[in-house]
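To close the chapter, one final illustration. This time we ask the reader to focus less on the individual chains and more on the assembly as a whole: which components sit near each other, and how the overall shape emerges from the parts.
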Amino acid sequence: MYIAQTVRFCTQEGEMHFMLLFSRQGKLRLQKWYCAYPEKQKKKTTRELIATVLSRKAKMCSFLEWKDLKIVYKRYASLYFCCAIDSDDNELLTLEIIHRYVELLDKYFGSVCELDIIFNFEKAFFMLDELLLGGEIQETSKKNVLKAITAQDLLQEEDAADNIMNDLGII
Amino acid sequence: MNAALDTVSGIRQVFNEAVERVKSPTPIRLRDLIRQIRAARTAAEERQVVNKECALIRSTFRDEDSVWRCRNVAKLLYIHMLGYPAHFGQLECMKLSASPRFTDKRIGYLGAMMLLDERQDVHLLLTHSLKTDLNSSTQFVVGLALCALGTIASPEMSRDLAGEIERLIKSSNAYIRKKAALCAFRIITKVPDLMEIFLPATRQLLTEKNHGVLIAGVILITRMCEISQDTLQHFKKQSRSRDGGVSLGRSIPDPEDKVTSPGGPYVVNLVPNLVRILKNLIMAGYSPEHDVSGVSDPFLQVKILRLLRLLGRNDDDASEAMNDMLAQVLAVNILGRFLLNTDKNIRYVALNTLLKTVQADIGAVQRHRGTIVECLKDPDVTIQKRAMELCFALLNGNNIRSIMKELIAFIEVSDSEFQAVCSSKCVIAAEKFAPNVRWHVETLLQVLRAAGNNVRDDVVASTIQLLTEVVQQHSYVVGEMWSALRSATAQHQPLLQVTVWGVGEYGDMLVTGQASDSQVKVSEEEIVAQFEPILGSSQMSIVTKEFALMSLMKLSARLTDQSALKTIQHLVNGFGCHLNVELQQRGVEFSQLFTRHDALRPALLERMPPMEARASGRGLTNGTAAPAASVAATPAPVAAAAPAAAQSNSSALLDLLGGMDSDVSDVVAPVAPTAAAPPAASNMDLLDLLGKKSGVWRIKDDWLRVVFAGVCIEKVAQVAIRDKSWYGFVCIVRYFLWFLHPSNLKLVSSIRMYMTCMLTQSHWGGVSALTPFKCRSVWVFHKFLCPLCAARS
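The assembled structure is written out below.
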């Protein structure tokens, strides 16, 4: 029975339990879970959290308590960036992490907007995976993160080039 | 010439093949699918598009098509994010991650992280491709595998791959090292036993230049220290080593990297290292890549501080080493400024920090009391909550009045959860710090009024108890009660209960004009008239009515006016046919107090003495019946209200009658069932109830009905034992009292046997916490019944 098990959310995982990105209409644009919930639980959590955050007024502070987690959220243009951390974790640092993520996306896409994230969601994921691992921050230098992403994109392109040449029988 | 022709035909062939491929249906691109879905105007349309695409994707999966697998899985992931099921793509993700192409691997691992989790056995199949990729020569492939492992590692996977990770932590490539360290962090979280494997590697991690590896290392070490006390000690007492130096780019290497306390063991290779890193971060000049608003790499600083906190706890030497540095790092006492800031986040942080420091240093926080109280009015719930907690922490004898005023205003406007919590705390605080009785009483009434129906149950009981204790001020109390009673409505039931109790208990003072300073004189009819709407209204809860009925009875002993008494009797009789069995029983039994047992009435309804402190009574724990001896030894929490049978000598009666309790479910003067008008159920039905072997009587009503109807009490006792029912036991006690008669002695002693047997049973089913009612029944049994039986037999 999951009911008893999921009363306490994941124990002792990394700092961040999950991150959600959603629009003002409540449409999910990105979700990254750092602990194992069953699928139903994820859906329920997402729904409830989106409703709670969207009901907050503009001037309210970025932190709220929800179940036994702390939720840190920030709105950038039409997107809400929402993270869940333990109640004794540092919420201001999480805000910084969110901001760092947004800066990276901005640099990468060149003045990022919601559409970029919709049509390139996999790239947004890749970026997040270079910033956080297992819920903890892995790279504090913006330059290094972008360097890694660019290099991997290059690998992808080389791959694609190889493929075409393979198909054409040139290689 | 031939060679040229060959080349041309070769090219033509390739061209034709390409055209063929263009003509055959290829899966649409991810981008186009997203456009299509966004173009759908209704949910149904969207579902249609999605389902169609899912069907296509499924069929290509079935066909084992490797060419377009990557694109299809990417589309599937998008569909999954919209909320549609996508579990059929799990295996495909794994096939993708096993592909040699980097693009495939990227999408494959992403899919694995999104669709798989450690709860499903399927994820173990990933282990093989992970292992291969962890050994790849391309750093980014290794990176992908490490990332996937760090996100979804399960205990089994962790065990399998721990060795690889350990090797990778020592890699020469910083990119891999940092990811491996975080992977190790995840692994030891899942399987703490594996921690030993990673211990040797940690030493190197702190000597890094690269911030990424450094922060990963700090995180890893922090988790190690959190998991195991031994490891924590190990880090603290690491012996002197040659490679202690740390340098970070522009930093100044410090030759003295070890601290030894005089005569003590070597302390902390770790702490000086961390301290020096921190120092370098703060002192060193501007580093653009790590800078955040003028602070150099706050992420790393915070993680180091956290680790230092862990290491320094309860350890003087370590703390010494850190002190100097920390004083420079930490913000100075500017929290007050934060509180006034308009940015809500800053306010929140300030309040939070103050909450933590108030334990250590109240004086400093008192300075900001005014601002904190202002924060109570903030529309933001999170800030309100923090401000409320802080207010309670700051309460003392000096500021209680002003803060309490604000808190009461806060209760009035807050939502029900807050009201319940805040009112309970206010009552406790009022008790602790009340400057005088009058203020106390006023405040309690105000709190009850402000919180309406959202007061916690124990608040009513504790308020009443407090009121009984202030003996000198009863005249003042009753005056207040009277005015509060006039103004209370169905929205303030706890307030009603308290005031009704007060008026009932001290009503005579109201009449004689002793009440409060204004010497208000209230006529007896007026008092009784105040009760009628309460008893009659359907909006009042049963509990409130029980209180009111009891108080009315008490008034019958306090008032002297005949017409008022007649009215009371009339009202009480009316309850004899109430639908609620508890009220009905009270109605009937109280009516008996006017007729058959009229002589007892004044004594029964005497004023109550002050209740003893709450703590002493609750000696019995949840559900276990203490052995008979110890029960007799614990003092009665509240004096019982059980009247004796008419024949018992008056000293025993007076003994029993410490007074009446206002608490809800007890109170009743049991009436000989045969004299009363029994409820509709006939004896036959009730015997059927008794015969029920399987059904357990859980409802109070069943017991009441049976005892009421005078069904053979022995049978009832047997059922009570069988069902282990407290309420049954209690009903029998009441029955017992009324039937105590010299001719019934044999019955009495056999029932006494039953009751002792029940008391010594170790487990009572279906019982929540022991209430005063139950305690009292046991007390009655031992104090009154046993001696009587002993005297007679």
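Confidence is low (pLDDT under 50) at residues 239-268, 613-687, 689-698, 762-776 of chain B. The first strand of chain B starts at residue 259 and ends at 260. With these observations in hand, you are ready for the problems at the end of the chapter.
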